[in-house]
Amino acid sequence: MYVVIAGCGRVGSGLARDLVAEGHEVALIDENSDAFELLGEDFPGQFVIGAAIDWDVLREAGIERADAFVACTDGDNTNLVCAQIAEKQFGVKCAVARVFDPLRAELFDEVGIRTVCPTADAKALLHEAVNSCEVRG
User: Fold this and answer.
1) pLDDT tens, position by position, 76-113
2) What is the DSSP track for 88-130?
3) Domain housing 39
4) Does some domain include residue 123?
5) How many CB atoms lie within 10 A of CB 118?
6) Domain total in the chain
7) Beta strands 114-116 and 68-71: pairing type?
């Protein structure tokens, strides 16, 4: 599988390493060239410096042959727009956007844009953890 990831922070770089370890091909896009240092010098994937909403940057990363696209920059709007471009303009079958705002994530999920919301996920996990605590008396 060929995966394009927009955003090479902790999440994007970690996901890229995991996918490569599973045998997938990966291309990463980030506006900051220093971000790619998180992957190490021996990372076999492709690096593209630029804005992931730029169609030329997406093409350079291989979006036209991508099986999956993940948008995990630090901006909800950027992630949502990138995922929509990947899916609707380039025909990527699996496009996912990380969205911090739970309301926005829910709204876009309802209209067919696949989202992952770490804020909602963390809240649910913390709620479960609190409820599983034994009361010390």
Assistant:
1) 999 999 999 999 999 999 999 999 999 999 999 898 89
2) IIT--SEEEEE-S-HHHHHHHHHTT-EEE-HHHHHHHHHHHHH
3) 2-132
4) yes
5) 14
6) 1
7) unpaired
Residues 97, 83: contact at Cβ < 8 Å? Answer: yes
- pLDDT tens digits, residue range 50-86? 999 999 999 999 999 999 999 999 999 999 999 999 9
Residue 137 lies in a domain: no
Q: Please return the burial class of 20, using the count of CB atoms within 10 Å of its CB with bins 0-12, 13-18 and 19+.
A: middle
pTM: 0.92
* Residue at 12 is within a domain: yes
Domain of 95, CATH number, reads 3.40.50.720
Closest CA to 86 of 111, 67, 108: 67
Count of helices and strands (H, E) across the chain:
5, 6
